Amino acid sequence: MATTSVKQLPKTEMILPGTRSCAGCGLMLTYRHALKALDEGKTIVAVPASCMTVLHGVYPITPVKVVCINNPFAATGAAASGIVAGLKATGKSDYTVVAFAGDGGTYDIGIQALSGALERGVNFIYICYDNEGYMNTGTQRSSASPLGAVTSTTPILSKLQHKKDMIRIVEAHDLPYIATGSPAFPFDLFDKVKYAKDVLGSRYIEVHAPCPPGWGFPNKDLVKMGKLAVESGIHVLFEIREGRFSLTSRSLAMAKKGRKMNVSDYIKGQTRFKKISGAHLAQLQEFTDKKWNESLERHFRDNP
Ligand SMILES: Cc1ncc(C[n+]2csc(CCOP(=O)(O)OP(=O)(O)O)c2C)c(N)n1
Ligand code: SF4
């Protein structure tokens, strides 16, 4: 895919100064670039209880220039379906409906409503910003938290399970477009949201969104942490168009050069991994290598 350059990025800001998100928030940077790829005044966002609600502020004061419907935690897929149905009933065909939910609201509590919407092929984009925990309520473990991470509900032994493979679950719904993204690679993210906007049917984008207080790294290191996640293979950048899998951006460059950093390089700057044992680190490396090799295999098979 063609990559947008910094000069081509729309100058319009849909998020104005004064959000209530933390400094250095990965979700905030994700939202900023995703909204740049969508049409001002023609985008409706559905958001469950999460840090995203906090970012939007409390009615009638908000720094976000987009219509947003705040829905119950478990109901994002259903709420977005209702908005799509309402637009259809009133003959409005030029709006884009975007659901924007955290990993808790996607992998865990919202999975039923999401699966229902995807199975019905509802015409919307679902963006999961994955900060790997229930951050808004104090860093509880989610099924997206990585093995070895300390969370407020796994304070002693750290998390003992690997992250759930949400992409595989979503892929089982046969969507026309699935992608991953990162705020550390904003042009790749922008391009994917822009492409998704013009695809008909359900589209799913999963963004790995570093969270300074939840992961335990300095605010200034947001982009560094996002890059390390990609460069260590913890988060792979790709898109799947009508079933065809292609690595993108830094992940594609890594595939061509045959280079990847170690998981230990990624985790050493985050206090949530302070208790990780040697055995868990080896398991996390093995898990990451397996996923990376599967991605390489799939990319070169689909792009000979
Ligand atoms: C049914 C229900 N249970 C619990 C809550 C409390 N709650 C609000 S936000 C939140 C965490 C959301 O986590 P996630 O979806 O990962 O988004 P993040 O906070 O990380 O942005 C929880 C547990 C709620 N609002 N509704
Ligand atoms: S807790 Fe994390 S995800 Fe939530 S606003 Fe702060 S940095 Fe962003």
Q: Ligands bound here?
A: thiamine diphosphate, iron/sulfur cluster
Percent of residues in beta strands? 5-15%
Please write the CATH class name: Alpha Beta
Model regions low in confidence, pLDDT < 50 over at least 5 residues? none
Quick one: biggest sheet?
A: 8 strands, mixed
Task: Please name the CATH topology.
Answer: Rossmann fold
- Counting DSSP E segments of at least 2 residues, the number of strands comes to 8
Q: Quote the distance from N terminus to C terminus.
A: 16 Å
Topology:
Elements (H helix, E strand, L loop, with lengths): L25 H11 L6 E6 L2 H6 L10 E5 L4 H14 L6 E7 L1 H5 L2 H10 L4 E6 L35 H6 L5 E5 L4 H12 L5 E6 L3 H4 L6 H10 L6 E4 L2 E4 L1 H9 L5 H5 L10 H25 L2
Parallel strand pairs: 1-2, 1-3, 3-4, 4-6, 5-6
Antiparallel strand pairs: 5-7, 7-8
The structure holds thiamine diphosphate and iron/sulfur cluster.
Account of the 3D structure:
- The protein is α/β, with parallel strands linked by helices and 304 residues long.
- The protein has one domain (26-302): Thiamin diphosphate (ThDP)-binding fold, Pyr/PP domains (Rossmann fold, 3-Layer(aba) Sandwich), CATH 3.40.50.
- Helices cover 38% and strands 14% of the residues.
- It has 12 helices and 8 strands.
- The protein has helices at residues 26-36, 51-56, 76-89, 104-108, 111-120, 166-171, 186-197, 212-215, 222-231, 249-257, 263-267, 278-302; strands at 43-48, 67-71, 96-102, 125-130, 177-181, 203-208, 238-241, 244-247.
- The chain has an 8-stranded mixed beta sheet with strand order 2-1-3-4-6-5-7-8, sandwiched between helices.
- A hairpin with a 2-residue loop joins β7 (238-241) and β8.
- The radius of gyration is 18 Å and the shape is globular.
- The chain starts with 25 loop residues before the first helix and ends with a helix.
- The model has no long low-confidence stretch (mean pLDDT 96).
- The structure holds thiamine diphosphate and iron/sulfur cluster.
- Residues 21-22, 25, 27, 51, 131, 135-136, 211-214 line the site of iron/sulfur cluster (SF4).
